[in-house]
Amino acid sequence: MEGIIKVSTEQLRSTASEFSTLGQQVSSLTSEMTNTVTSLASGWEGDAAQAYINKFRGLEDDIQKMNNMIQEHVNDLNDMAQRYDDANTAAVDLAGTLSSDVIV
Fold first, then answer.
1. Taking a C-beta distance cutoff of 8 angstroms, is the pair 77, 13 a contact?
2. Domain presence at residue 1
3. Which residues of the chain fall below pLDDT 70?
4. Which of 21, 51, 61, 86 has a 20 to 30 A CA-CA distance from 29?
5. CA of 93: how far to CAs of 89, 97, 98, in Å?
6. Is the whole-model pTM more than 0.70?
């Protein structure tokens, strides 16, 4: 069976859904973390506080990039699943056009 690719489009879509859920969790946690860091400013002032807040805000960009990458994987997995489904449908349709009474 070398060279044969077996694909479960349901598994691809399920994994995409899991990634999407995790991406939403990352966004939610990032928002909570941002709120927590911002609330520190009410009780922590000075250069150290500002440096910490600035450092965290710099991490927000990295976290957003990571979340964008997660969403790209979601899109890629869903796209692959759709392409496999489309190819399978085309193969079934093509097979349906073949003659079944070739030998008389």
1. yes
2. no
3. 1, 104
4. 51
5. 6, 7, 9
6. yes
